[in-house]
Automatic annotation (TrEMBL), chain A:
It comes from Anaerosporomusa subterranea. This is ABC transporter permease. It comes from the Bacteria. The chain crosses the membrane at residues 6-27, 34-52, 58-77, 93-114, 134-159, 188-213, 225-252, 264-286. Belongs to the binding-protein-dependent transport system permease family. LivHM subfamily. One of its GO terms (biological process) is L-alanine transport.
TrEMBL record, chain B:
It is a multi-pass membrane protein. GO terms for cellular component: plasma membrane. CDD domains: TM_PBP1_LivM_like. GO terms for molecular function: branched-chain amino acid transmembrane transporter activity. Its main location: membrane. The chain crosses the membrane at residues 6-25, 32-53, 59-81, 117-140, 177-195, 215-236, 248-267. This is ABC transporter permease. Keywords: Cell membrane, Membrane, Transmembrane, Transmembrane helix. It comes from Anaerosporomusa subterranea. InterPro entries: ABC_transp_permease, LivM-like. The keyword Transmembrane applies. It is found in: Cell membrane. It comes from the Bacteria.
C-alpha cells in the first residue's frame, strides 16, 4: 500500500514537474506568470487524442503531434499576446492580464467549437499492470515517470550544453546584459516558448490518459503553479522537486486522510508557503523592482 | 418584455456592484486579485444560508454576507499584504485562495456540497439592486476622493515614493481589499436571492476572471469605466441572445486586444461624468464650423 501510493504519487508528481518546468522556464526569463499555459496543455491533449483516435496513429505519433502542436501554439501565443508588451517594457501585471485573456479565449473557443464533452483516451496503457516486488504498478504510471524524467533530463542537458541553452540561462539572470553580449533576445524568447510548449504537449497527453480530455482541464496547471512555488518560482530544479513533492504529498493525503480534502490541502499549502518562504526551496525572491 | 429587460438590468447591476469593488482594489492599488469569486461565493452562501435555514430578514442577511466577506478579506489580506508579496505571488496566492474556498464549499455540510442550495427566497428585484448599486458607487466615489483614495493612487503609481512620503502601504491596500471584499459579498447576496439557487460551480475562476476583465476593459483607475464595461459585457450579449460560450471567447479576445492596443483600458483614468458628455457635445457641435 505504502509503496504503491508512493509510485502513484511519483507518477502524478512527474506530470506536475513537467508542467511546472514549462511554466518556470517562461517565468525565469520573462518574470511573469504565464496563465495561458494551462490552455496550451489542454489543446495538446486534444491534439493527441485526435491523432490517436480519429486518425488511428500509434501512440508515439500522437505524442509527437501533441508536442509539435503545443510548441507552435505557445510560440504563436508569445508573438501575438506578449511580444508587443515586451517591446513596450510593460509591467508584469499587463503580461498576466494578456495571458489570462489568452487562457479564457482558447478555453472557451474549445467549448464553443468542440463542445464540453469529456473524451477518454483509448485504453492502450491504462488497463495493464506490472508486478514489481509484490506491488502492482500501473504501466501508465511507470510510463509517465520514465517519460517525464527523460523529457526533463533532455531539457536539462540542452540548457547546460548547447549554445542556445547557455544563452537562455544568461538571459534568466539579466536580459539586458545578455542582449548587450550579442544574444538575439527575440529568437531566444521564441525558443523558450517552443520548449515550454513542447513540455505542455507531453504533459497534456499524459494528463488526458490519466484523467480525461475536457475544455477546463487546463485548470490543473494551478497545481503546476503550486509546485513551482514550492521549488521557487523561476528555478528549474526547484520545479522538478516541487512537482514530485506535491504529487507525492497529494497522493498520500488522498490515500490516508480523504480524497475530498486533497485540493484544499494543496491550495492551503500554497498560501502558507507563500507567506513563510516565498522564494521556495531553490528560488531567488525578487522584491518588486523600483 | 419589460420583465425580461428588467431582469437583464438587475443581473448586470449585480455585476456592476462586484466590478466596482474590484476596481477600487485592482485599479487603485495595482494588485491583481484572481480569487474574487470566492468573496462573491462567501457573500452568496452566508446570506443564502441565513435566510434559508434561520429565516433571517433579507436585508440583515445581505449585510451579514458583506460583513462575512469583509472578515475573510481581512483573514486572507492580513498575511499576504503584510508580507508585501510581489504582484505575481499575490495573484497566485489569491488564485489558490479562491480555489480553496470553492473546494471547501463543495465539501461542507451546511452548504450541501456540490448539490447546492435550492429554493432561496426570491427577494432581489430591480429597485433593491438599484439602491445597493447607487450606495456602493457613492461610497466608492467618496473613498477614492478621500485622503485614503488619494493615498491609494499614490501607491499604485509608485509605492516606494508613496511609502517615503509616509503612506502606510499595508493599511491602504488592506482598506481597499476589505472594501472590495464587502462589495463582492453584497453582490453575492443579491445574486443568491435573485436566482434562488446557488452551487459551488457558479463561483469558479471563470467568474473571477470575468470580474477582472470588466475592470481591465473599463480602465484601471476609473470607477465608471468598469461599471459601464460590466453592463456592456453582461447586458449586450444577453439582449442580443448570443450564446454564452461565445461571450467568453470575446472576453478573452478583448483582454488580449486591450493589453496590446490600449493597456490603460477603454476609459483609462477618466471618469464618465456630466463634463464628459458636455465636452463630447461641444466637439460634435464645433465639427460643423471648423475641421475637427
Amino acid at each position: 500500500m505504502f509503496i504503491q501510493t508512493l509510485v502513484t504519487g511519483l507518477a502524478i508528481g512527474g506530470i506536475y514537474a513537467l508542467m511546472a518546468v514549462g511554466y518556470s522556464l517562461v517565468f525565469s526569463v520573462l518574470n511573469f506568470s504565464n496563465f495561458a499555459y494551462g490552455s496550451i496543455i489542454m489543446l495538446g491533449a486534444y491534439a493527441g487524442y485526435y491523432i490517436l483516435t480519429q486518425m488511428g496513429q500509434p501512440l508515439f505519433v500522437a505524442v509527437l503531434a501533441a508536442i509539435i502542436g503545443s510548441a507552435i501554439l505557445a510560440y504563436a501565443n508569445e508573438k501575438i499576446a506578449y511580444s508587443s508588451l515586451r517591446r513596450r517594457n510593460a509591467s508584469s501585471l499587463y503580461f498576466m492580464i494578456s495571458a489570462m485573456g489568452t487562457a479564457i479565449f482558447l478555453e472557451n473557443l474549445v467549448y464553443a467549437t468542440i463542445g464540453s464533452r469529456f473524451y477518454a483516451f483509448p485504453e492502450v496503457l491504462t488497463r495493464q499492470n506490472l508486478n514489481v516486488l509484490g506491488t502492482s504498478l500501473g504501466i501508465l504510471d511507470a510510463f509517465a515517470i520514465v517519460f517525464s524524467s527523460v523529457a526533463i533530463y533532455g531539457l536539462h542537458w540542452f540548457l547546460q550544453n548547447s549554445k542556445m541553452g547557455i544563452a537562455i540561462r544568461a538571459a534568466s539572470y539579466d536580459m539586458q546584459v545578455s542582449q548587450i553580449n550579442g544574444v538575439n533576445i527575440n529568437r531566444l524568447i521564441g525558443l523558450v516558448f517552443l520548449l515550454a510548449g513542447a513540455l505542455a504537449g507531453i504533459s497534456g497527453v499524459f494528463l488526458g490518459m490519466k484523467y480525461m480530455v475536457y475544455p477546463t482541464m487546463g485548470w490543473i496547471t494551478n497545481k503546476a503553479y503550486i509546485a513551482a512555488v514550492i521549488g521557487g518560482l523561476g528555478s528549474l530544479p526547484g520545479a522538478v522537486v516541487g512537482g514530485l513533492l506535491l504529487g507525492v504529498l497529494e497522493t498520500f493525503v488522498s490515500a490516508y486522510i480523504s480524497s475530498a480534502i486533497r485540493d484544499v490541502f494543496s491550495f492551503s499549502l500554497l498560501v502558507v508557503l507563500l507567506l513563510v518562504m516565498p522564494s521556495g526551496l531553490f528560488g531567488k525572491y525578487l522584491e518588486e523592482k523600483v | 418584455m419589460f420583465e425580461y429587460f428588467s431582469g437583464v438590468l438587475t443581473f448586470s447591476l449585480i455585476y456592476v456592484i462586484a466590478t466596482v469593488g474590484l476596481a477600487v482594489f485592482t485599479g487603485f492599488t495595482g494588485l491583481f486579485s484572481l480569487g474574487h469569486a470566492a468573496f462573491v461565493a462567501i457573500g452568496a452562501y452566508t446570506s443564502g444560508i441565513l435566510t434559508y435555514f434561520y429565516q433571517v430578514n433579507f436585508w440583515l442577511a445581505l449585510v451579514a454576507g458583506g460583513v462575512m466577506s469583509g472578515l475573510v478579506g481581512v483573514i486572507i489580506g492580513y498575511p499576504t499584504l503584510k508580507a508585501k508579496l510581489r504582484s505575481d505571488y499575490f495573484a497566485i496566492a489569491t488564485l489558490g485562495f479562491g480555489e480553496a474556498v470553492r473546494v471547501l464549499l463543495e465539501n461542507l455540510d451546511i452548504t450541501q456540497g456540490a448539490r447546492g442550495l435550492p429554493g432561496i427566497a426570491l427577494e432581489t428585484d430591480l429597485p433593491t439592486v438599484l439602491v445597493v448599486t447607487i450606495i456602493v458607487l457613492w461610497v466608492a466615489r467618496n473613498f477614492i476622493h478621500s485622503r485614503y483614495g488619494r493615498a491609494a493612487i499614490a501607491v499604485r503609481e509608485d509605492f516606494t515614493a508613496a511609502e517615503m512620503m509616509g503612506i502606510n502601504l499595508f493599511t491602504i491596500r488592506m482598506r481597499s481589499l476589505v472594501f472590495s471584499a464587502v462589495t463582492a459579498g453584497l453582490a453575492g447576496g443579491l445574486f443568491a436571492h435573485y436566482v434562488s439557487f446557488i452551487q459551488p460551480s457558479m463561483f469558479t475562476g471563470a467568474l473571477s476572471t470575468q470580474l477582472t476583465a470588466g475592470v481591465v476593459a473599463g480602465g484601471m483607475g476609473s470607477l465608471t469605466g468598469p461599471a459601464l464595461a460590466a453592463i456592456v459585457f453582461v447586458a449586450v450579449p444577453e439582449a442580443l441572445r448570443v450564446a454564452s460560450m461565445w461571450r467568453l471567447v470575446a472576453y478573452g479576445f478583448l483582454l488580449v486586444a486591450i493589453m496590446v492596443f490600449r493597456p490603460q483600458g477603454l476609459f483609462g483614468h477618466q471618469e464618465i461624468s456630466w463634463n464628459t458628455w458636455r465636452n463630447l457635445w461641444k466637439r460634435v457641435r464645433s465639427c460643423g464650423t471648423k475641421p475637427c
